[in-house]
Structures are given as structure tokens and as C-alpha cells.
Write a structure and sequence with these properties.
It is built from 4 helices and 5 strands. By secondary structure, the protein is an alpha+beta fold. The chain has a single domain, classed as Ribosomal Protein S5, domain 2 (2-Layer Sandwich). The protein has a 5-stranded mixed β-sheet with strand order 1-2-5-3-4. Strand 3 and strand 4 form a beta hairpin. Helix 2 runs parallel beside helix 3 and helix 3 runs antiparallel to helix 4. GO terms for molecular function: RNA binding; structural constituent of ribosome.
Length: 129
């Protein structure tokens, strides 16, 4: 077993690197406790969901560096990074996390803006005359 488990999670344009070591359950995101970084309860729960589902929230200290995107993308990236770290530590957790679809990278990205349109799909207002 490795001392430090290093994994990467991505969502939209966010990239999270998680470093997991055995410990007391502290989660640090960009040098801040997770409660301070993800102030929204839902985003925090989304990020910590793999730990809660596998019931290993108090077993590891996790340090996470996350950059890019917004809060939603970052919490998704953190969730994937933690899930991958848990599977690297314990293969039996893989089955649980896979059934909850926490090991799948969400492929949805923002659609690019097209020329001749206001946004990706929205057209300019049509004027008949």
C-alpha cells in the first residue's frame, strides 16, 4: 500500500488533484477547510459523497488542489478525485462507487457560441418586416 494516494478528477473546466493519507477525516481544499471553501451545503455534500457512501469519512486526511471553472464544476471534480483515491486504496469500494455512478467522468461541457447567433443555440430576434 502506498503512503500517499494521488488522484485527479475533472468536471467541466475544473481540475482537482487529491492527496489522500490515513488520518482523522480532515479535508482541506486549496489550503482551506472544506466548510470554508464550499460554503453551500449541497456542494459540500456533493464533494464528500464518495466518503459518506463508503463510510470512510473519518479514516483519511485529504488535501485537494482544485482550479478552473466555478463552484459546481469544482465540487464535481473533487468528488471524482476522492472516489478515484478510495478505489486506489480499496478495490472493494469500487463496486459501491460504480453503482452510485461516482467513478464516471461527466462528459458534459459548455457548448461553444456559434457565429450568426446570440449564444450557442439562441438566435437573434427575428423581424418579419
Amino acid at each position: 500500500m502506498k503512503e500517499v494516494i494521488d488522484t485527479v478528477g475533472r468536471r467541466k473546466t475544473s481540475v482537482a488533484r487529491a492527496f489522500m493519507i490515513p488520518g482523522k477525516g480532515r479535508v482541506i481544499v486549496n489550503k482551506l477547510p472544506i466548510e470554508e471553501y464550499f460554503k453551500d451545503e449541497f456542494k459540500r455534500q456533493q464533494a464528500l459523497r464518495p466518503l459518506v457512501i463508503t463510510e470512510r469519512a473519518e479514516e483519511f486526511d485529504i488535501k485537494i488542489n482544485v482550479q478552473g471553472g466555478g463552484v459546481s464544476g469544482q465540487s464535481g471534480a473533487v468528488s471524482l478525485a476522492i472516489a478515484r483515491a478510495l478505489t486506489e486504496f480499496d478495490e472493494t469500494a469500487r463496486v459501491i462507487l460504480k453503482t452510485e455512478k461516482l467513478l464516471t467522468r461527466d462528459p458534459r461541457m459548455v457548448e461553444r457560441k456559434k457565429f450568426g447567433r446570440k449564444k450557442a443555440r439562441k438566435r437573434f430576434q427575428f423581424s418579419k418586416r
